[in-house]
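This section describes the prediction task in plain terms. A model, or a person checking by hand, is given the sequence of a single protein chain and must write out its three-dimensional structure as a string of tokens. No templates, partner chains or ligands are provided. The sample shown here is typical of the held-out split.
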Amino acid sequence: MRQLLGLAIEAAGPCLPGVGSAHDAKADTWRTYVNVRFGYRICFPSNLLRVEPESPNGDGRVFTAADAAKLTAFGRNNAEDSSLAETAAEARVRSYRRQGQGQPGDSPELGSVFRQR
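The expected answer:
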């Protein structure tokens, strides 16, 4: 069975370093989150993102910035053999519903990255 790994960024406004504000990337303190269940790891600036608890089923974790922007890293088993495009579209719809928004074009979401293995 193949697995899908995803990384999504949700923001209500500019949240990336260098976008809309001055930021010294050299001052960032980088840490690594390792997901044992799906065998992936990501590096994140710990001085910019607060680490939320890992999900109960061990599929990933949410990182929250001071301006409420969120970075979500997750994995899932691809039992239905969905394409990356189908999985990305499904994740966007879930995100809009969770945010209480009507249409996908209305979301402040900056983007999502999916990888299949």
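For orientation: Residues 3-116 form one domain.
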